[in-house]
Amino acid sequence: MLYQEGLRETALDMGLIGLRALEFADLGSAPGGLFGRIYPAIRPLKVMMGEMSRSGLLTPRQRRTLGSLVLAQLLAPCTQRVLVHGDLHPSHLIVDLASRTLGIIDLEAMRTGKAATNFAQLWIGYYFADEELGREFRRRYFLASAMVIDERFDADVRAELALRSYSHVIEGMRQSNREMEEKARALLSSVLTSRSFDEICPEGAA
Hints:
Low-confidence stretches: none
Order of helices and strands: HHHEEEEHHHHH
Number of strands: 4
Shape: globular
Strand order of the largest sheet: 1-4
CATH architecture: Alpha-Beta Complex
CATH superfamily: Aminoglycoside phosphotransferase (APH), C-terminal lobe
Radius of gyration: 17 Å
Largest sheet: 2 strands, antiparallel
Mean pLDDT: 89
């Protein structure tokens, strides 16, 4: 739907519904205990270890910025927990257009955590499809979900975007998907040089 002009409005609506469903879901549905505490640290550790074994993907300054972002994300307290999908992107939202109903699939990494994680992961799909679509998705989400946007939201979004875009760069290289790799590299560079999400995705841009 993201790439079909006539369905973009529906894509925006369904993406927001998916995020809101996770924010209002019963947290008892998620695995608890040790899994919820350990899993968020696995990906950053994997990325940082992978970066140490590669040369040329990040500059030393970018590597330090990435480390600072993800460390702060891990150490900062979660003041308002929601159900986190763990690997949320548009293809995991299954839409029945006839009935305008939505299903969410691939919940293996589901846990409790921060709303910023769900938003950042899903937002990338909209932004990669079209930057204007990403800006509109961001605008509507911020209006609809003000209750979960706290003082850490911006930094947590940037940390998740850094991890996600880094993984997309590696996946694009592995698949020889030049378009994915270039978009992910551009986003990663923007995240690691920006001081806020508004600099990455300015709401008022034309």
